[in-house]
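Quick one - inputs below.
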Amino acid sequence: MTPKKFAYFAPASLKEAIQLLRVNEDAKVLAGGQSLIALMKLRLAAPAALVDITKTGDLLSYIREGKGHLEVGALTTHDTLERSKIINKKFPILSDAASKIGDQQIRNRGTIGGSCCHADPAADLPTALTALESEFVVRGVKGKRVIPQSKFFVDTFTTSIAKDEILTEIQIPHTPPKSGSAYIKHSRREGDFAIVGVGAVVTVGPKKVCRDVRVSLGAVASTPIRAKSAERHLKGKTLDEGNIAEAAERANEEADPPSDMHGSRQYRLDMIKVFARRALNLALSRAR
Amino acid sequence: MRLHKKGLSTLTKLVREEPALWMGHPLKRKEDRRLLTGLGKFVDDIKLPGMAYAAILRSPYAHARILGIDVSKAERLEGVVCTLVGEEVAKLTDPFLQISSPPANKLKDYCLAVGKVHFAGEPVAAVVAETRSTAEDALELIDAEYEAVDHVLDAKEALKPGAPVIHEEVGSNVVFRGKWDYGDINAAMKQADKVVKKTLHFHRFSSTPIENNAVLAQYDKATGFLNVYSNNQMPMFCIPWVSFALKFPSNRIRMVTGDVGGGFGTKIISYPYIVLISLLAMRSGRPVKWIETRTEHLSAANHGNERMFEVEIPVKNDGTILGLKVKAWDDCGAYTRYEPAGATIWAQVTPGCYRFKNFQMEFLQVMTSKCPVGPNRGYSRMQHLWMIERSVDIVARELGLDPTEVRLKNFIRPEEMPYVTPSGGVYDGGNYPESLSRVLKLIDYWRWRKEQVEERKKGRLIGIGISTILDSGTNNFGQVKITNPENPFSGNSEGARISIDGLGGIQVALGTSPQGQGHETFASQVVADEFGVSPDQVTVLMGFDSAVNPYSHQSGAYASRCAVMGTGALLGAAKKVKEKAAKIAAHVLKADPESIEFKEGHAVDRDSGRKIPLWQIGNIAWVNNVLLPEGMEPGLVAIHFWRPDFGLPDEKWRLNQTLTYSYQSHAAVIEMDPETGKFKILKYAIVDDCGKQINPMIVEGQVHGAAAHGIGAAMYENFEYDEDGQLKSSTLVDYLVPTALEVPDLVTESMETPSLFAPKGIKGVGEGGGTPISAIANAVEDALTPYGVEISDSHQNPQRIYELIVKKRKKM
Ligand SMILES: Cc1cc2nc3c(=O)[nH]c(=O)nc-3n(C[C@H](O)[C@H](O)[C@H](O)COP(=O)(O)OP(=O)(O)OC[C@H]3O[C@@H](n4cnc5c(N)ncnc54)[C@H](O)[C@@H]3O)c2cc1C
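Output:
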C-alpha cells in the first residue's frame, strides 16, 4: 500500500523543525522512518506533514561523556549503538538490545530516539533504557527540559513529549564499579519483536552481596516496566544461583501481558521468570 | 547410479573448458545476470501509455451479507477513473468454472463478492484511478454495509448439522467425499500385533513468493484483443476460466508473463484477479495495473490445504507396517478455485516410500470461512507424506524400535522398481534404503544417538529426526476425473519451438512460463547438446507470450514438470529441425542424410568428414532457398508437443498420477530448550535423487529452497485465525518467513537414479515434498523423549511445545 498524501519538510535547524511542528496541524517528526513509514504505508498512521530531523545542521548522532552520565544523541542509529566501543564496555545492555532489533537495514536507519518516541512496549531499547534509569532531553519552543524515565513512557505508543517537542538526547547515568548489565529477549526469529524482553543491571558489593539491582521488562505491559518485587528480593542478598532464581520467580508480579499468536498471557508470564533469571545471570557475569 | 558430492566447492570450481555434454553441467544460470543487476522484467516494470491503477476493497468480515456498497463518494474523488462492485460483476460475467461434481459445482464464484462475503479479505469492490495512492484513497470513501452472519473456521465444525453454510447454493460445506480402499485393511488389523492410533493436524501456511500477484490488462479496441500481462503460473491453463467468465473469445486473449518473482503454486489461482482487472480495463478504456500488497497476498491469495487425520496403523512387533487406515478432513477455505484437485493429488504418493498394500482412506474436503486454498509447493502430497512420516516415527516409538530401522524394514526395495502402488502409481526407479543410509552417514546419526544419551544426563535435550519422502512430478490431469468424471482434462502436454534463422542463430521458445526456476538455462543446455553448440549460442525467449510462444493448455510452471515436459518437447522439436537440416546439409555435401552429425556448430558428414556450418544451412533454408533440395519446404523451424504415456482412473480410482517420483531423505538434529519450548537446528542433511540432473547447481538450489520452505513451515510460518475469522498473521511481522539466520547450513548429497520413463532419465525436482516438516516434527518429539511428549501438529510453535512439557511435568 501507499501512504496517504502528506507534506514533507526538511528543516535546516532544530529550531525551524520545532516551529514547523507547532504550525502544522498533525505534523510528525521523521527520524529513521522504520516505524513511522511502515505505519503510514499500512495507513494506520496518516500524518498531514512529516518534519525530517535528519537533515538539520544540529548533529544529533553522538555518544559522549557528560556529567555523571553518558549522552546519546537521539539520531544515533541502532547499528552505531551496537558497534560503539564505549557502549559495549559501559552499557552492554544497550548493545545487546540494539543488536537484536529487526535486521541490518533497520538497524542502519532506525534511531534510539525514534524507538523511544514510538514507544512500542515490545521495543528493545526502551526496555533496556528503563533498567538504566535514563533521562530524556527534549527541546520545544520554550527551550529544553529533562524527563526522567519514569515519566517518559506513558502508554502504548504514547510518551510525555508534546507535539511540538523533539527528543534530542538520552542521558544514561553511570553505574558504580562492579556493575554488569544485560538485555535478552525471547522472540520467534532472530530480530523479531520480543515476546518478552528483559533488561538487568546489577551492582555487586563486598562478599558478592547485591548492592543494587534493576530489572526491566518489555512486551508485558503498556509500557516497559520494572520488576520491583524481584529487585527487592535480591537487593542485599548474596548474588548466587539460588537467590537469583528466587528473585526471578517474582519477576512477573508487576506484569500484565497481552496475548497474541506468538505468546499468550500465561506463556509470557512464565517466560518472564526464565528470561529474568538468564538476564540477571548474564549481567552478573559481566560485573567487574 | 552416479554419486557426486556437491556443495560450495563445486559451485566455486566451475569448469571453464567446455564439457563433452552440457547436460549434467553446473552452468551458471543465464537469467541471473539480468535478475542480479536489477534488469529483470516484472509486471510492475511495464508501463503502458495511459495506464491507470487499481485498488481493491476487501471484506472486513469472515461471513456477512452485503447490504449495500455506495461508491458515489469514491467516484467523485479527483483522479478516480471508475469503480466496480460485485452486483455489476454478476451482470457482466459468468461465475467461474467449477471442477467439483454436483452439488459442490453449483458454487458461484465471481471476481468480486456478490451478495455475501465468505472470508475476511475477499474482494468486494475495486477502484481505478490515475495513481495507485488515489485509488487507495478512494477505497476509504466507499461505504460498504454488511450484516455479519455466523462463520465457521474448522472443517469438522463445518460438517455439523446447523453449521453456517458458506455457499447456500451448494447446500452444505462439503466439496468432496471419497473412499479409497485397497488390499484388505480389516484383515491387516486382525493380523496385527498392535494397532497404533493417532490424531494429527497439518497446519495452514503458504509459499510467500518475493513478488506478489500482479496483473496489467489492456483491452485494445482497434484489434479487439485483450492483452493480459500477469505473473500467473499457468497462463494458458486458466484461459477457460478467464474466457468463460468474461464471455470473451479465447482467440483474442493474449497472455504474457515476464520475469516472475517465484510462484510455488500460489499464482495458479490468480484468475479472479485477471478477470477483475480485465473488466476494469474494458470499463475504463485504459490499461489498468494492479499489484497485490503483501497483506493482500497473505490474507487472500491462496493458502495451503489444512488437513486433519485420524490414523490407524496395524503393525507387527518387528516393525512391519501392514497397512494404513486414514480418515482425512481437508479444509479448503471459502472457495474451490483449484479444488477439489487437492482431494485426489495426495494419492500420487499413496503409500509414501513403503511397501504396505492394505490401505484405506476416507477423504472429506470441506469449506470454511477462511482464505481459499490453492496449489502450494508439495501440494496435497506434503500433508499426506507428513502424516505417513509422523506415523512411522510413532510406530517406532510405540514398538521401542529405532525409526530408521522401521523405515528400512518397510521401504520399497530398489529391485521392486518400477513399483506399482496400491492406487496405481508407478514409481519410476529409486533406492530408498540407500538414500536413508547416505543421509544417516552425512549427519553422523549413530554418533548423535550416543551423544543424545550423554547430553540428556547433563540436562541437554538433543533430538534427531529423519524423513524420507517422495517428490512426485509431472501430473496426469486424469486424476481430477476421480472427483468428477465429467472433467474434460487428462494427461499432460507441453510445447517447444526451435528455429535456426538465416544467419544460423538458434532460438528456442517454450510454453513453460518460468517463475524463476531457470528454464532459459536448462533449455539452452538440452538444445546445445542436440546441435553440438554451446549454451551461449542458444537463445531461449524469456517469459511467455501466447502470441509468440508455442503452448498447450497444460503449459505452465507447476507440478515439478518443466524440466521433464520441456525436455520432452525440446527433444521432439530438435529432432524435426535436425532431420531437415541434415537433409539440406546432405544435399549440399552430396552425402547421406543418415550420416550427418551436428558438432561444433557444423553439420558433419561422418563418412567423408566434410562439413558445412549451421549458418549456411539456415541461409539456404530461408533466403538462399533455390539451393534447397527439390520439393523441400523453405524454413528451418519446428514446433513439437510432447505428452507422456498416461491413463485414466479405473473403477477403483487406480491410475499413475504422475510421471516421475523423485525422493529425498532429510535428517535434522535439534536442541530443545525445555524452559521455553524453543529449539534450534544443530545440523541438517539432505540426500536427494531426482534422476539424471540437467544442471546440478539448479538442482541444489531447488533442494535448498524447498528445505528452507519446509523449515519455515515447521518452525515459523502459520496462518492462524482469531475467533472472529480475522487472519492474525497478515503481515510479515507475524507471518514469519525464515531468513538466512534461521536456515541452517544444509549438508547435501545427490544420487542420480535415472527415471525409467521420462526423457533422458530426468525427474522433476523443486517441491521437496515438505520433508523438513516431518523431519523436524520427528526431531522435536525425539528431543522430548524424557517428557514423553507427543507431537501431533505439523507446526512447532514454542509456546505449544512449552505447554506440552508443562502438562507432562505436572504429571511427573
Ligand atoms: C521489520 C521491522 C522489525 C523491527 N524489529 C524491531 C525489534 O525487534 N525491536 C525493536 O525495538 N524495534 C524494532 N523495529 C522498530 C525499529 O526499532 C524502529 O527503528 C524504531 O522503532 C523507530 O526509530 P526511527 O528512527 O526509525 O523512527 P521513526 O520511524 O522515524 O519515528 C518513530 C516515531 O517516533 C517519532 N520520533 C522519532 N524521532 C523523534 C524525536 N527525536 N523526537 C520526537 N519524536 C520522534 C516519530 O514522529 C514517530 O512517531 C522494527 C521495525 C521494522 C520495520
